[in-house]
Amino acid sequence: MSTPKLFGILLLAFSSCLGGPRHGLKFSIPDSAGDIYLVVLGIAQDGGYPHADCRQKCCRLVVNGYQPARSPVCLGLVDERAGKVFLFEATPAFANQWWLLQELTNNRDKRTPDGIFLTHAHIGHYTGLMQLGREVMGTKNAPVWAMPRMEKFLRENGPWSQLVRLQNIDLQALQADSTVQLTADLRVTPFLVPHRDEYSETVGFRIESRNKKVLFIPDIDKWEKWSRDIVQEVRAVDHALVDATFYKDGELVGRTMQEVPHPFVVETMQRFASEPGPEKKKVTFLHFNHTNPMIWEHKARNEVLSAGFSIAEEGMVFGL
Question: Could you report the per-residue pLDDT of 245-294, keeping only the tens digit for each?
Fold first, then answer.
């Protein structure tokens, strides 16, 4: 059987596991998700998978058809009762991710997200905004939520400033630890995290419905640099989607990993080692660099899953 056919069957099987098709796509929103839910639309680090100019085994697996390509990290947030659809991050794969969210949620007539939330100014997290410009979608006042430095960066630097000037986007101010009420049942709170803040600050988000809370931290430096305790933060929520850029030390060939001090997955697992199983299960890893074997190798994935943690997949749904 050819690899493309096999992958199609696997996607259909994954769709079945999600609860059966509701909108006729290869993966779908399960009925059990209810009317408010998060959809994982991307799981890779900024450069996606495969990575530009990568000739290593990890990326050759995609080129040779043994692994599917993966998009940079993006979440869709949907409140069907309110008829609202939001995106967290505007990635280089914006076109595909927005199309997929429209199809999954049967919102083909909704031409623009009801809001886009940005974590920071690294290329995998905001450059998809270019799709909103007059060269492509030509949107009208699409709400883009950004922290003060991020907002200033967009207003003062082209081509993003043109989006503001032509009113393709409408910048909405975020403040750390200040909650934004999106709908009657949904609210979002940004919080600062340590990271390489060349052009903007970096935030994670707490996404809350009346019933559940989700932590979203796609990018952060080592946990010990943060003023908060990640274990305590996870105890206070129902799900936590956290930075898994690198599995362990030594992944980058010819480059010191101190330049990109993300928490290694093995370090995060160690921090939660004494937590009970239900707490570990809350932790879902995402934002995988192409070198992270969790994205292309069974051994690493099995180590994480057997330790009681979760691994994000494109199409994964979290009911809120």
Answer: 999 987 877 677 777 789 999 999 999 999 999 999 999 999 999 999 99
Closest CA to 147 of 222, 79, 203: 203
Instruction: Answer yes or no: are the C-beta atoms of 288 and 245 closer than 8 Å.
Output: yes
CA separation for the pair 130, 134 (Å, rounded):
9
Which among 111, 62, 120 has a CA at the least distance from the CA of 88? 120
28-319 CATH: 3.60.15.10
pLDDT tens string 92-142? 999 999 999 999 888 888 899 999 999 999 999 999 999 999 999 999 999
